[in-house]
# Entry
Amino acid sequence: MTTRLKRLTWSALDAAGRREALARPALTRHPELDARVADIIGQVRDNGDTALRDLTRRFDRIELDALRVDDDEIRLAERQIDTAARNAIVTAIDHVEAFHAAQRIDPIRVETAPGVVCERLTRPIDAVGLYVPAGSAPLPSTAIMLAVPARLARCPVRIVCTPPRADGCADPAVVVAARLCGIADIFKVGGAQAIAAMAYGTRTIPKVNKVFGPGNAWVTAAKTAVAFDPAGAALDMPAGPSEVMVLADGSTNPQFVALDLLSQAEHGPDSQAILVCTDAAFAAAVEQAIETALPALPRREIIEQSLERSACLLVDDIATAIDLANAYAAEHLIIQISNARQYIDSIKNAGSIFLGPWTPESVGDYCSGTNHVLPTYGFARNYSGLSLRDFEKQLTVQELTRPGLEGLAPTVLTLAGLEGLDAHAQAVAVRLDDGEPS
# Structure
C-alpha cells in the first residue's frame, strides 16, 4: 500500500478549499455518548465503589478485588522496571521539574494610592485528580507531566487514576513514574467512571477539585460534564485529537521531517499531521522517507489511518507558511526552516514550538522539560499548555487606611450612583461619618 500525503498547492485553492485543507478530523462521537456518560456518572455518584467495580467488569472485563494500588503491587512494579527505564523516568522528572519550578511567581504588593494596598497571593488547589490513559499504549510520561507540577504547587491531595491491564494491575511504568513524582494514591480505574469517581468521590477514592489529563471521547465528555456541575470538578483544558504542523523550506534532512510526522501519526487514527513546505522536491523526498520508514513501524495500521486525514500544503514563501501556522493553531508546531529562531516572534498561536533540525517533537513529549499536555483542535488560539499555574489559584487582597478610604470615597460614591447601588455607597459613607479622627 502506498501512503501518500494529500498534496495541495495553497495558492491554487479558493477560500472554501483553504478551509477544508486546514479542517481537523471530525470528532468521532457516538450519538448517545453524552447520555451514556451521564448514566455512568450517575451510577458512580449513587453507588460509589460498587459501581466502579461493576463498570470495570463491564468495560475492562476485569474483576478487581481492590481499586487502590497496594504496597505489594508497587513493589512488583518496581521489580518489573529495569535500571535503564527507571533512569529515563528520573531524567524526565528532573527536567520537567526544573522547567516548572521556574514558573513560580512571587507575591505582588502595590500601593495603588496613598493608604490603598492591593496584593496578589498564590495558593495551591486543595485536591487534584490526575488521569493517566492506558488505551492503545500506557503513558508514564503523562504521569510525569501531571504529577510534577502538582507536587511543585504543593497541592495537599494528589491522586492518580489509570485503567487496569488485563492482569488486573496498573501499568508498572505508570506506577513507578507516579511514585517517583510523590504520588501516594494510585487507583486502577479508567474511562468516564474514573473522572466521575474523582469529581464526586467514593469511599475509596477522594473527591478532588480539579481533574487533569488526556483521554478518549468518553473521558473528554465526562470531564466536560463534571466541570459544568457545581458539585463536580473543574477541568484542565478542552481536548481533541493530537496534531502536529511542520513548517519546512527544504534546508534539513527529509527523514527528520518524515519521522516528525510519523511520530505524531502513531498517536491514534484520528491524529493529524500537516506539512507546510516551500519546496515541492523536498515534499516529495519527505513522502519517500515516510514510505521507507513505515513498514518497520509496529503501529503502521494506525499511522496509515492518520495519514489519510493529513496533508502537505505547498506554499510560495515562508511568510505564507507562518500565516498558515497561526491560522491552524497547532498543538505541536515544528519549524524546520533555516535560522528557525528568527521566526519565533511571528508565531502567535501554537501549543508548543520546536525550533530547528535537532528538536524533534519526541523530546517535548518526554523529557525536554516543557509540558506535553497541550491545547488541541485549534484551542491554542486561546489556551496555553499545562503549567504550574493550572494547579494554583491567585487570591487578591486589599487593605485601606482611613485616609486611603477618604481618598477613594468620591470615586466609589460616584460609580455606585451611576449603577444605582446605594448600599455600596452607604458602606463607604458610614465609615466616614462616624466622627472618628483620620
Observations:
- The longest strand covers residues 116-124.
